[in-house]
Structures are given as structure tokens and as C-alpha cells.
Amino acid sequence: MNEGLFGIHGAALEVRAQRMNVLGSNIANAGTPGYKARDIDFGAALAERLGGNDSENAASRATVYRIPTMASLDGNTVEMATEQAAFAENAVAYTATLGFLRGRVETVTRAIRGE
């Protein structure tokens, strides 16, 4: 019923939230020697999620390691500009998806009330 009611947006919100956690972890570990920056391929994770996998499995299958533009001497692959840009882009998309869901809930609520 959730998929019929919310369409793709419910699954997209879950994947975007998980991506936000991964990107936040990258930013938090920017100074950790040997830390390898990761990201979630949103399209692949969403396809997995819509294919019937739970959100944790979908996200783990779509997780990839970033290839740094400039290698760090300590083995850390986090590039702050890249991570901040990806985090900001994901935050905007998360907010947009949340807006779609909010609109859908409001529409259903008005229909139930008979407005």
C-alpha cells in the first residue's frame, strides 16, 4: 500500500537518508589516515529498493568507493569539496522528495475529510 500511495518517493527518501549518512561519515573522517571515502549510487540503490530488497541491502549493494582526484599521503580519499557538494546536492533532493510526500499526505488527508 505504501508504494501505491507514495509511489517511488517513499523508497527514494529512504535511499537519500542512507546516502546522507554515508556522506556525513566521509566528512567526519576527513582527517582519519587510511579512511576510504564511500558513496551510494542513488540510481542503483533505488532500483534495488524498488526491486523488492530492503533499504539496508539495497544501499549496501550500491555502495561504491570514491576514486580521489588527488591522492593523499596518508591514504585518506576524502576530498572535502567533493563531499560537501555531494552532501548539499543530496540534501536538496531529500527536501524535494519530502515535499512531494508532504503534498501527497495533504491530498489524502483532504480526501478523507471530504474537502
If you had to describe this structure to a student in words, what would you say it looks like?
There is one protein chain. This protein is mainly alpha-helical and 115 residues long. The chain has one domain (2-113). The chain has 5 helices and 2 strands; from the N terminus they run ααβααβα. It has helices at 2-6, 9-28, 42-50, 55-61, 80-113, and strands at residues 38-40, 63-65.
List keywords for this structure.
mainly alpha, 5 helices, 5% strand, two-stranded antiparallel sheet, 65% helix, 2 strands
How do the helices and strands line up, and which of them pair or pack?
Layout (H helix, E strand, L loop, with lengths): L1 H5 L2 H20 L9 E3 L1 H9 L4 H7 L1 E3 L14 H34 L2
Antiparallel strand pairs: 1-2
